[in-house]
Design goal:
Elements lengths: L1 E5 L2 E5 L1 H4 L4 E6 L23 H15 L6 E2 L1 E2 L6 E4 L15 E2 L3 E4 L5 E6 L3 E7 L4 E7 L1 H6 L1 H13 L7 E4 L9 E2 L1 H10 L7 E4 L2 E4 L1 H11 L7 E3 L24 E7 L2
Parallel strand pairs: 4-9, 5-7, 6-8, 12-16
Antiparallel strand pairs: 1-2, 2-3, 3-17, 8-11, 9-17, 10-11, 10-12, 13-15, 14-15
This protein binds zinc ion.
The site of zinc ion (ZN) has 6 residues, from loops.
């Protein structure tokens, strides 16, 4: 990944996906916004205890820096599930004085419509970007441990192919900043679920000092390869959000009292 700065707001972009002029994408950090601690400062989380005014202003600053219209933003109230939404219509005009979810109950959004901007909001969960430059279809995915367990990334790949004519071998992927295996300690119940779902040495867990740690990014990388993506087409960000809670919001590190950063993606119009 590489860092860019627009209007004094820093963003991260994937190197592999930056090479495609038909795709726009960016991942925010916690820098550049107006929210006070513990949401300092670019909090984009709608279901946080930050004020609606701050959250709206932060969205306005991001849309200004990334040069998209906030009215074209499509988002979902994420539920750690397996449902992917095909976004085929324009978002219904929202009140310009507020920012709200356009959908609820989905953890991945897919579109082939230029001008629509998809977003996923996270603080430790894995944000994933998928793009087929020939079919011109883009998807954003939210994969926490529950979403990883149900295979949301692979489900999104399948839906891109079935509903939009994408082909697995053409899809480029970016796996964004999330909590790493250095910090993501899981309890025995979660460990057991991953043991059952991913057998043997590929259960993405390591044991250290009597504790079990899960590697969500590696698990999602493996799911994408298992879904037919070419490993060379997948870029994995090396940040751990908990190690780098100075840069990113981390739900685990900050014990739930934090904001959300976001992945934005859309097709050029
Ligand atoms: Zn870490």
């Amino acid at each position: 990944m590489q860092k860019k700065t627009n209007n004094d707001i820093p963003f991260l972009v994937f190197n592999n996906l930056s090479q495609h002029p038909g795709l726009f994408h960016a991942i925010t950090t916690r820098a550049g916004g107006i929210s006070p601690a513990p949401f300092d400062s670019l909090n984009l989380g709608l279901n946080t205890e930050d004020t609606p005014e701050n959250i709206l202003r932060n969205h306005q600053m991001v849309s200004g820096a990334l040069a998209f219209n906030l009215q074209s933003l499509v988002s979902t109230k994420q539920v750690h599930g397996s449902r992917c939404l095909n976004v085929t219509g324009s978002p219904s005009p929202a009140d310009p004085g507020s920012v709200t979810y356009t959908h609820e109950g989905y953890d991945a959004l897919i579109t082939d419509r230029p001008g629509i901007v998809l977003t996923i909001r996270v603080a430790d969960c894995v944000p994933i970007l998928l793009y087929d430059p020939e079919a011109k279809v883009v998807a954003v995915v939210h994969a926490g441990w529950k979403g990883t367990l149900v295979g949301i990334a692979g489900i999104a790949v399948g839906q891109m192919c079935r509903a939009f004519g994408a082909q697995e071998a053409r899809i480029r992927a970016g796996i964004g900043p999330s909590i790493g295996p250095c910090c993501f300690e899981v309890g025995s119940e979660v460990a057991e679920l991953f043991h059952q779902a991913f057998t043997g040495s590929t259960n993405y867990m390591t044991r250290r000092a009597g504790s079990t740690y899960l590697d969500l990014k590696q698990a999602n990388h493996a799911q994408l390869v298992g879904s037919g993506l070419v490993p060379q087409h997948i870029e994995t960000g090396d940040f751990c959000t908990a190690c780098r809670s100075d840069v990113f919001f981390s739900h685990r590190r900050e014990q739930g009292k934090t904001g959300r950063f976001a992945l934005f993606a859309g097709l050029g119009s």
